[in-house]
Protein 1
Amino acid sequence: RRGCAAGASSVLRPATLTRIGALIIGETLAETKLPEGAFSILPCPGKVAEKLATDERIKLLSFTGSPSVGWSLKSKAGRKRVTLELGGNAAVVIDADTKGDAMNDAIERVIFGAFYQSGQSCIGVQRILIHESLFDAFSDKLVAATLALKKGDPKDEQTFIGPMITVDEAVRLETWIAAAVKAGGKLLCGGKRKGNLLDATLLENVPRDQDLVCKEAFGPVAVLSSFKDFNDALKEVNDSDYGLQAGIFTRDIHKAMRAWNELDVGGVIIGDVPSYRVDHMPYGGVKESGLGREGVKFAIEEMTEMRLMVIRSR
């Protein structure tokens, strides 16, 4: 739709498992006054979709998905513009002054960030860094809130934890959890799977080289760790191949500004989880998380060519 706003025709190639949703979007847009041919939907195999990356008639390629596929498409795109949103393992920092009502607020937001959409979000909370003075109290309350989440049928409005997109993805994440526990991590709650429904899961003290920490989980799992020094917490956030967004809970404006200056991410969310996003934000990441920015204004800028006219008068 942003391509249409920029005066360009757009072609949407949906992911293999989300074709129905894309076609519903098409049905909705068909009822609008978009010019004929302004927006097309092309469900097709990946090999066919690759031709969109090389076709000279297409001036911009925008891709959301895995880093391996995204960077491969970029290498094939030649001179056309490319924007990539390739996921992450987002972290949130809970500083020492997050007490009382502030702690309760942070727990509510972390629950949302880690488990909404069953954790299947590029900016879902995956790593939770908690100051050592708060660790026991925060983790106890977080586990209790996690256990209270209703799981099951997503058509039930009371359900918070629904199924993952496929059984294979749920099995993958179950395997990561088992590997993390075997490597020394402690399972605080969850970890059980039935079909493609995986319980909301929390672990602590998982080694940083485990897939559950250093890769994108993309499911209802989060890992807790403690820190003593705020600067060390920022270094741990940066200790990632990804850099999409990060969240910082602190009442200290100097620490907030330090996080803004030092974190190697596309967005720093102060007083909330990294999962916060509204459509007019310049949304995107660095490192393996991609390049370019989404958001109405910024996407339109990506999709238009700046031109200059100079008039000399005498």
Note: The first strand starts at residue 10 and ends at 12.
Protein 2
Amino acid sequence: MSRFTQKIKNVPLSTSVGILSAGTGSRIKSHEPRSLLKVGPKFLLQHQLDTVNSVFHEPEIVVGIGVEANRILKKFSGKIRFVENQLHDTTGPFETLRLIVNNITNNSILFFHGDLYFDIKTIASADFSKSFIVVDSRDKMREKEVGVTIVNDKASILSYGLDTKWCQIAFLTGKEFAILRQICSKTVAESKTLLAFEVINSIINRGGAMKVYEPDSMSIVEIDCMKDIKNENFNC
């Protein structure tokens, strides 16, 4: 696994990783928390942890949880840090991200949605000296997902109805991370329902620059329905 670590370009000395996993698997007719969905031989969260730890050296991982928090804590006790979004039923992913950002110690963060199953190649070759989002133009993500308009290899706006899709993975450092910190420190009621892509748009609107990164080869699945678990070959 160390060979993947050696491929990382300009990786920061230390980084934080945030996993937004406060919701349920209700869309796949399961009331399990996302973290405890069984995908192949592993819990989804365990696969995500294995992937992240294969890419980074001792990352600071913080998982945002909500539904069935005690069950998750029991299964993963002592392995990683958790923050609980006690308002997960009435708030959006940004509230979970806000809690994570306010509980990390590094000046950069890789964050992703908790229902993603992706392989090491998805992030291992990224340039971590700059802020970026992972994108897909090869139909790996669904047509209904949030897309991105790209200008000079940078994201200009994330919105629905665009062909190139955001893979729900983002890395923020430098100015962009500082802007995220500012947003997270000044919470108003309206922001609690924001989606993650809306926060990225806010960062761009405040002068942040988000590079777009599409891996040459990656395997990524958003677990959105039971068919995703049954039909995919989960050997990422």
Note: Residues 82 and 189 are 23 Å apart (CA to CA).
Protein 3
Amino acid sequence: MKALMVMYDSLRRDLLSVYGGPIPAPNFERLAAHTVCFDKSYVGSLPCMPARRELHTGRYNFLHRSWGPMEPYDDSMPEILKKHGIHSRLATDHYHYVEDGGCTYHSRYSSWSCYRGQESDNWVADLAPTPTEFAPNQLSPEGATGTLREMRRHGGWQNMHNRERLHSEEDFPMSKTFEDGIDFLNRNGRYDNWFLQIETFDPHEPFTSPTSHFDPDCATQPDWPPYADVTEGHEEIEAIRTKYEASVRFCDRQLGRVLDLMDELDLWKDTMLIVNTDHGFFLSEHGYWGKGGSPNYEELVHTPLFIWDPRSGRKGVHSPALVQTIDLAPTVLDYFGIEIPADMLGRPLTQTLADDTPVREYALFGYHSMPVGITDGRYTLLRDVKDFDEKTYEYTQMPTHMRAMFSVEEMRTATMAPRFSYTKGTPVMKIEARPNPRFLHTLKGGDMLFDLQSDPHQEHVLEDAEQSDRLLTAMTAAFEENDAPEEMYSRYGLSSTGRRRNK
């Protein structure tokens, strides 16, 4: 058995031509003709590393933890493959894997490589002082118009030095990542028992691509939106969207290289192919840039997903089944005939790929301590935080944030919590959570119910108490199934039965 995953970051479903969007993506259309294309695929935990923890563990991350590493008690799909004699390979340019908050992911694979230089990756060393007015390629501060914004002074300065290493298309981290994957396929495609994950940071911001990088007319135009309310005018908004489109076209071109090799090596006959992303990205929709504290609208949580299963051979169809990121790990394990761990709450999509058999009635999604949502594929309820005074906690044995270990001050709040149902009988630290304050200003307050069938762009809040109550009941049930801590019920105004699953 063989399996290949091609994973992107921040790839918008609704903008791809294969889903009826405005960005021409011929290779994604070619992909859809050879796979099952899911119309109701949703994220679980946001953003990047929480989503990747779900990719490994097949269970929600955000009810217990924010951004963090894999934990000692976690089930890891690529590591399980490795232990069963299946070579799992990661080729990536996602630099968060080699920071504190992602430090235990890549080592779960049999082998891995990481190509440097994306975003504010601390790669190129240049000690030149940052200019006082430095703000290239980033939008203007809140309240300013028609100028460029400095979003992250240090990160932007680092990114500029990283970009200086890009002299040809082959120099881009995404190109190197796909070249690594293609090399693996050329050398090992004829062998059996492997899982290859080609994962790129693109089209994550900043939206750098060969088209924009080497075009003097647009190289200095903004390509790095903040995580904030939109204050810019039409011209700047369109410039950012154009840069994003160029990045997506670059992603499409790289995908084509993989599809060409699938044809050349005749891998379709015996190789599962999964093409996915972690989440979307706001490009001014609903008045937002980026992601973070904004309500979890469709542009962020409704994702593209394509899967080819050579066993069923079903292709060129759109599946209406409701699926999530947590379903991918059990799907891969089931494909290789490996028993799915009991702690994986996602469902294998084997039968769904064959005939659209449903695997779930609801999909839960959200950020740790921040807004959450739930959908049944038609109705979506976006739930705001109800009690900001209710403290939440990080439950962990690995106290690191994205780029740093927990501070001494944070660790002084630590106590030992009772074990949870998924921690393999081990206790965990309970440390006071500190939600990012720069996200809080974007919270609008109040719940929002939408009927996606009549209002796919979520422009009109629906008043329907019966549907809201049904979805809240389902949300509570999902909290209970996932052994959510008691404070999470209070924070979101849910009624707990008090029946924790910890032992």
Note: Residues 140-152 have pLDDT under 50 and may be disordered.
Protein 4
Amino acid sequence: PQNTPIFLRYTTHIADRSMYNTPNTWGIYLLKLICDYMESRGGVPWIQKINEEKAARLYGAIDASAFWRSPVEKESRSIMNVVWRLPSEALEEQFVAQAKKEGLIGLKGHRSVGGIRASLYNAVPLEAVDALVSFMKEFERKNG
């Protein structure tokens, strides 16, 4: 009947060769594992605390020196995507290139505004932020 929901219609599945809304079972399984892992450690409050710490460490390094400049007001800063600038675009390009050689990837800023951007997603460990901060200090020492 026409009032049958589209997903429950046999003709829908025939027309799409059984591919209509096929669930990603591997993705569902991984999501379950991630949720179980997070829940066993304290859930959202646990990951929130870690993410705030990662951002605090990186913003601390940026704010500790005039070499780095955050274009975002402190009250509006993201704890997930940290953006900053160097004294020149040439230094930014050099920073990204040298960071990549050290295994610090994905730091090139937005294509329309440039700069540097570090994404501190849940899977990024504190040690990765510490490695970036250490690299930043050494880069400033050599180029500041």
Note: The longest helix spans residues 43-63.
